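User: I'm putting together notes for a lab meeting next week and I want to include a structural view of one of the chains we've been expressing. I don't have a solved structure, so I'd like a prediction I can at least talk through. The sequence is below, exactly as it appears in our construct file.
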Amino acid sequence: MSLNYCDLLVVGSDLSGVIASTLLAKRGMNVLVLDHESEEDRNPNLLTGLNSRAFKSLLGKLMIPDSKTNILQENPISYQVIFPKHRLDVSPSQPFFIKEIGREFPQDVEVVQALLGEVQELREKFLTPLFTQLPIVHPSEKKQFIKWFRTFPDQKIKDLWAKASPITQTFLKAHLRFLSRGPLMDPLTFQILLFLSPEGGTTFSVRGGMRELKKIFFEKLDYFGGMVHPLGQDSMDVLVNFREVKGVQLGRYNFPTRCRYLLGNLDIQNLYQGVPSTLFSRWHKSKIMHMARHEGNGIVQYLIARDYLPEPLKDNAVIINDPTQPLSGLNYLELNLQALPRPLDDYDTLLTVHYLLPADTLHEETIYFENLHEQIEQRCLALFPFAKGHMKKVFPVVKQEEDLFPEQKDFGEFKNFLSNRATYAPSLFGPSLTSSFKNLFTLGPNVLDWLGTEGKMLSAMKGVNLIWEKELKKRS
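Assistant: Thanks for the context. Below is the predicted structure for the 476-residue chain, given as structure tokens.
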């Protein structure tokens, strides 16, 4: 393997494309992955959806031994939801879940019990048929899905949801958002079907972070003859001839990387910036580039000593300041606590705060985010006041000393983080895995993002099937 030529070139390192590239390498394709993420993982140390049968089946297909997955640790309490006057500990155990609802929202315990019962019945009958149809690629598949959906009996779920009090509805929406790691769909039916179940409610911490999970797949990719090469923030132009992609030209090299298939595996608009507008691609590219961004995902990180945190606070928590307002901005903060490998001065814990931004604020100046992060810090200190004076912000920070262009460092990385993790309006029918080029496919963070890790696995398998079908036709 080299950077000159490969069968399959994967641009980006979202989990969906990493899974797909490993499976295709196992089938004998020469695979090159251009990894666009840095080694310093800024993501919260949190994963969901790894307890599903699909993920366990994937590990079996790739012959990944249990010794490799020891880095995954199931959290006994999946996460907490903290309101001004309520606190709920959420567990994959359904009796425990009902008990917490009864303790904090006793008026709704019977409604929630009935809702969970209805969800269980629908899962047994409809979850597998739903998953076999997603993601939807061809117009015939869309037509078939709409026909199937018209027969889907979701009215009882809607009626039970309407009976719940507003604060319980807010809690359940936070539950769906937290476990999906993505935006809320309208309607919520399919997210309710997946995440209001014991299997869907499990969370994991990863020793070493999300990068370590991807390295498990990268090691298998290497075993099957593939290669991973850092892309970083290097510029990239896609090389095409008529309706076929021929490869890419990376800014740092004076030679192209040629390929037979190209798989985009990062933010879809960032990918299509490097795709030329030809007679055949102009309409499709314009459609992609005019997709409206739905919201942004920001983070701010602090060093803190665990002793200054209240005992009831779990490693993962959601803070909701006003249950009557939308779950965005300062009204929805996700806290993740991760023990440092070794203490640093007086600090032993990394606190990552994840928050949601309106799409129109993604390009604000540095001062906007500095003020926003100051407000987030005050919200955190209201929750654990003894930490005042004992929290040190480590990302993003503007260094005032010795750096000639301080904002080009941490805040440059922060802006890239925002750009790569923006979401688009969630949809059952897009963005498409195919393109106007016969050998360009897309996976990445925008495909089925409202289904969390399950969505990544479904899209990975569909991507594998699309590419492999074309490959078999070429070989026959």
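A couple of points you could mention at the meeting. Residues 403-408 have pLDDT under 50 and may be disordered. Residues 79 and 90 are 5 Å apart (CA to CA).

User: Perfect, that's what I needed.
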